[in-house]
Amino acid sequence: MSALLSLRNLWVEYGDKIIIENLSLDIEEGAFVSVVGPSGAGKSSFLRLILGQEAPARGEIRLDDTPLVPECGPDRGVVFQRYSVFPHLSALRNVMFGAECEEAPFSARLFGAARRKARDDAAEMLHAVGLGASMDSYPAQMSGGMQQRLAIAQALIKRPRILLLDEPFGALDPGIRADMHELITRLWRDYSLTIIMVTHDIREAFTLGTRVLALDKRRHDPHAPHRYGATVVYDIPLDKERSKVVYHSERITIDEVSNN
Ligand SMILES: Nc1ncnc2c1ncn2[C@@H]1O[C@H](COP(=O)(O)OP(=O)(O)OP(=O)(O)O)[C@@H](O)[C@H]1O
Fold first, then answer.
1. How does 233-259 read in b/e, with b if 16+ C-beta sit within 10 Å?
2. Best residue for ligand 1 mutational test, from 16, 39, 45, 165 (most atoms within 8 Å of Cβ)
3. How many CB atoms lie within 10 A of CB 190?
4. Cα(166)–Cα(47) distance, rounded to whole angstroms?
5. Which of 59, 155, 222, 255 is the most buried if burial means most Cβ atoms within 10 Å?
6. Which residue stretches of the chain have pLDDT < 70?
7. Which residues contact 215 (CB under 8 A, 6 or more apart)?
8. How far apart are CA 218 and CA 17, in angstroms?
9. In a 10 Å sphere around its CB, with 0-12 CB exposed, 13-18 middle and 19+ buried, how is residue 189 labelled?
């Protein structure tokens, strides 16, 4: 069986800066892939490639064995660290907006049965992310965690198969993060998602993921920092034992885990 996503010999370059260099990997359907790496390694660029927001300078991405066109499609949803919700719309309207744009691209307004269906679907999704009691609230009336739940509902309403998360919980307090971890694990299972999540938190990477990818440069030129790009330096399949070691460690590095 071929992989859901297949990345072959990818290069990302901005002008004369090489950001990602010769990256190849396959991602199976249903995986929860955590992506870690130093700041500036190209983790967000990597997500933008899969989202279709950017085309690689060289190389190929295949989705279901078909070349990925460089444009965002309904099969891929994304949630960023900072809230991407519309401040002037209620929670319900924020989630309905996706369906309205898709079905009525010029007016973004639906009527009659189509509107009722969009409203019911949005309400169901808000319940699924724990915002059933806040459908009429506006983002300014919601906590950071609630706004991230709303952003997740907005992404999931289009029923993507792949959910891309760019440090989704990075701005949240630890207690709220734990709740969000539970939520995302549940949604991953309930909606049979494939998740690719960038995080700076190694513990989060290992406790949520079924696989951890570390992006970094293999070679450095001290006189020309962008001469070489990052690639996958570690690709660690996770089992419960490995995740437990990381969960119970005060401080741990990716080198220590991969040697474990
Ligand atoms: N559109 C762009 N034009 C030029 N350079 C860019 C562009 N987008 C990103 N870069 C550069 O590419 C490099 C990688 O950026 P990217 O945001 O992908 O890294 P990152 O690993 O996600 O970083 P962080 O962990 O700090 O968020 C950085 O040096 C950044 O300045």
1. beebebeeebbeebeeeeebebeebee
2. 45
3. 10
4. 8
5. 155
6. 1, 83, 101-108, 110-111, 240-260
7. 20, 23, 35, 36, 37, 41, 42, 43, 46, 230, 231, 232, 233
8. 16
9. exposed
Q: What's residue 98's pLDDT?
A: 74
CA of 14, closest atom in ligand 1:
4
**pLDDT for the residue numbered 240:** 67
pLDDT for 106 equals 59
Q: Which domains does the chain have, with CATH numbers?
A: 5-75+160-259 (3.40.50.300), 87-158 (no CATH)
Identify the residue whose C-alpha is closest to ligand 1 atom 24. Answer: 39
Long-range (24+ apart) CB contacts under 8 A made by 109-118 are none
Give dist(CA 8, CA 2) in Å, integer. Answer: 14
pTM across the whole model: 0.90
Nearest CA to ligand 1 atom 27: 39
Reading the block at residue 169, the tokens are: 């919980």
Nearest 5°: the CA angle 94, 100, 105 is 125
Q: What is the pLDDT of residue 230?
A: 94
Distance 60 CA to ligand 1 centre (A): 20
Under 8 Å between Cβ of 93 and 118: no
CB-CB neighbours of 201 under 10 Å: 15
